[in-house]
Amino acid sequence: MSAPESWKAAYRDLIETIVNMGYPEEFGRAIAKNLGSEKTMRRMTAYPYSAKPRSAEEIADEMLAIMSDRERWIAKKEAEAANARYNEILNEGLE
Question: Whole-angstrom distance between the N-terminal and C-terminal Cα of the chain?
């Protein structure tokens, strides 16, 4: 299964943004690969325009922050689903 075109575009855009900032393409690929999702790559692509990072370390720190936000969001959604199922069992019983 290949990635959707929108994901590929987000990947390319992020790498291009990193390269245009003067960093190696490999650095951009590493950032994109670690982020993984289209939404997180789009968020990271917007970051340099608003924050004007002065170093690769600042870029990497933002990548880690975005990844952490995503992990928290996933955990929240999993907890909400588990809570909904628990409430369903309380209301309807086990069958």
Answer: 37
In whole angstroms, what is the distance from residue 10 CA to residue 45 CA? 8
SS (H, E, C) the chain: CCCCHHHHHHHHHHHHHHHHCCCCHHHHHHHHHHHCCHHHHHHHHHHHHHHCCCCHHHHHHHHHHHHHHHHHHHHHHHHHHHHHHHHHHHHHCCC
* Contact call for residues 21 and 58 (beta carbons, < 8 A): no
CB of 44 closer than 8 Å to CB of 35: yes
Amino acid in position 61: D
**Distance between CA 53 and CA 21 in Å, rounded?**
9
Q: Domain segments of the chain: what residues?
A: 5-92
pTM value is: 0.79
Task: Provide the mean pLDDT of the chain.
Answer: 93
52-88 pLDDT, tens digit per residue, is: 999 999 999 999 999 999 999 999 999 999 999 999 9
